Amino acid sequence: MLTNEILEEIYKFRETHAESFNYEVAAMFADWRRRQSESGKHSVTLPPKKKSTKSSQSTTSQV
């Protein structure tokens, strides 16, 4: 099987990061947010998508 060094590095970082927060998702997310705000890079927050008003029922053709 082929190995991808870049992916292996990402997996290792993710595992180390998760382990350092005892695998608590809320704490990891807070850290990601903190890192993002400290980076000074511009980020965009999009509003939630609106639900479609069209009926999701499928149409059937009559024979």
UniProtKB/TrEMBL annotation:
Segments of skewed composition (Low complexity): 54-63
Record region (Disordered): 37-63
Domain of life: Bacteria
UniProt name for this protein: Uncharacterized protein
Biological classification of the source: Bacteria, Bacillati, Cyanobacteriota, Cyanophyceae, Nostocales
